[in-house]
Amino acid sequence: MKQKAKRSALTKSIMKRNASLYVMLAIPISYFILFKYGPMYGIAAAFKDYNIFLGLKGSPWVGMKHFVRVFSTPGFFVALRNTIILNLGDLFFTFPVPIILAILLGELKFKGFGRNVERIMYLPHFLSMVIIAGIVYQVFSPTGVLNVIWAKVGGSQPIPFLTRPGTWRLTYWIASIWMGAGYGMIIYLAAMGGINRELYDSAYIDGAGRFGRIWHVTLPQLKPTIVTMVIMNVGKILAIGFERPYLLSNVLVDDASLVISVYVYRMGLQAGMYDYATAVGLFQSVVGLLMVLVANTLAKRLGEEGLF
Hints:
The protein is an all-alpha fold. The chain has helices at residues 2-17, 19-37, 55-58, 65-70, 74-94, 96-106, 111-122, 129-140, 145-152, 165-193, 197-205, 210-234, 243-248, 254-257, 260-270, 274-301.
């Protein structure tokens, strides 16, 4: 009893000393409860014929009806295909860019110039997607900057950056690189800051040149960070933001720009099929979780630390 009383008194004393920290911790906890865990109650709509007048509790239970409907609807498979294509493109084309930029900046002798480049590269991360989409249209539209230059150098027809599915995807990935390269670069620069400089000195003494030090020191030391980012990106193969494909799309490229998030928006908010849209969103979340687990397991079997 005395030990319990002592532990209780010690706990109270610690909580009093760190009261401000507990108050600060309550803010993110409240955020996750209200906006992450609270909405999970609505997942039940995927298993019901949801009626806004009856509410979630009053709507009749239909089991897996909407999931069967999802896999028998052609529009869903179009959205699924486009989501996978765009995310795989992000993984293979845009993922290596921040690594390359971070290594190049790390090798610069003029650190002041490197810091200015970091600021410029990081700036698009703070811009609204609406602004980004406006810039993309100003640059890549048939009357945009690139096509004006193309016409002046003798091009007879405008390049269809935003009006054909293939070139639209390329434009989408270019915008993705511009938006995300700076943020990813900061992550890898932070990881490079923790590399022991003696490893570079040892490699230099052993005769390794600049590229040799990058290959044998920098990249192996960055491997845990790269593996973690790969696992997180693999988990988002079916998860894609709504704003970028929606704002950059148009009727001419709907076969390439219709992704799951836009499909859920159309089925749920525009068509009023809330139960069907919830089933699509739940399928997306479950597959994303499974992808993270599989990627994490493979990373551990290959000798890496993994995400958890």
